[in-house]
Amino acid sequence: MTDFSHLNKKEQPGMVNVGSKKITHRKAVAKAIVSLPENILTALQKDDFKTKKGSVFQTAIIAGIMAAKKTGDLIPLCHPIGMDNCEIDIEVNSQNEVEIYCTAEVQAKTGIEMEALTGASVAALTIYDMCKAMSQDIVVKEIKLIEKTGGKNDFKRD
Question: In which pathway does it act (predicted)?
Answer without folding.
Answer: Cofactor biosynthesis; molybdopterin biosynthesis
